[in-house]
Amino acid sequence: MILKKTTLSFATSLLLSFLASPAGAATLSASVTENGKAQLGNAVVYAIPDAGLSAAEKNAGMKIVDQIDKEFVPRVSVIQTGASVEFPNHDKIRHHVYSFSPAKSFEIPLYKGTPADPIKFDQPGVVKLGCNIHDWMGANIFITDTPYFGISDANGNVVLRDLPAGNYKIFVWHPQQSTDTNSTAQQVALKDTGSQAVSFTVEKKKQWIPFRAPTSAGGGY
Ligand SMILES: [Cu+2]
Fold it and tell me: 59-144 belongs to which CATH class?
């Protein structure tokens, strides 16, 4: 009896998402500025439907956070809850990737190449990555339940496509943001066709980890 009900509701949500999908796809454009002035790149913009997510919208997927020239690439990633991330090391030296973040605490001890097992991120939140050997190496993974997200380019622009029509709350997150992400919510009603625009202003904290590795010569690392 229980099994039957589950199967039915799964089939229903598949059908609903199929009906809601390409026919009624909306586009959301967001522009992000820093303190209302400069355009801000590397900001995550994500849209959560008021109606909740169907089973078909929870498809997680896979991402890569590379290590190149003693830096994480990219510095900011966004993934859906349940997604896995591979951490290939393309340097000739070893890295030791770790996170102490509550959303996902893990480490991949000293390695070269691509670790056999990707890391699965099964809780929403922010994961700050570091390397035990190279203190300056840092990156962020933002994990959200919704599949509707993007990261702003150098001009502070991000476009979310193929959103089913409906009411959404739109949020922004940035690694240096000084305010709570939940307080950034903007309510938007997306229609079947056309696009809608929102803009965000991010208040930034003063401090930031350096973007580039120190250029000191030598050293075995
Ligand atoms: Cu390293």
Answer: mainly beta
